[in-house]
Amino acid sequence: MGVTVPNLIQFPKRHPEFRLAKKIADEKRGSAASFSNYVLQSLSPEAKDTWDQIDFWREGLSGQEQIREILSGKCKRVRQEIFVHALLNTSFNLSEACRLSCTPHTTLRTWQERDLEFRQMMEEIEWHKKNFFEGSLIALVEQQHPGATIHVNETINADRGYSKRLNIHHTGDGSAGGGISLEMLNLPEEMLLFIHNRMKELQEQADAMEAEAQVVEAPQLKG
To answer: Are 15 and 101 in a shared domain?
Structure first.
């Protein structure tokens, strides 16, 4: 076609319809693209420029051939950054990431086994991934999403009585102790929730009765 890659990269900047098409494509990719943008700033300038070119060609019929040409001559560090970013853009599908970044499986295995900086890069991505998931969960709780709210209370607020785990403590002769979880019984979810709610009610009643008993047993002041 006689069109250079730099000129193609400038097309979206000059033509709004290209930007719209790219936006639609990103939306179709879903949360993977969002998470990719979450850590995009960690790429080096050269890797960012390289990824922009790959992203332009990835959906084309001759995309793989063009990507191989783009990556030819790139140093190992840039190729590693491109692989990591491809991993994010493919929802952590290793096969797809290898294909998109033109990284042979044998090369990936060598990086994992012998390259400390690459392993550290992967560990950092895992850290970012946990932060991203945590942020998404908090956003759902802020929107009062029922499932997210229940999950957070059953985990973070488990010590306040929201846990689905019910521990039955036994002391025997006073020399031993232990705990049994209702989840070990493989009961239906509805039954577990019913038992949990009922036990919470009984505990609240017991606490109230104990408080009343303490008031009754309090010594009366003589007039």
So the answer is: yes
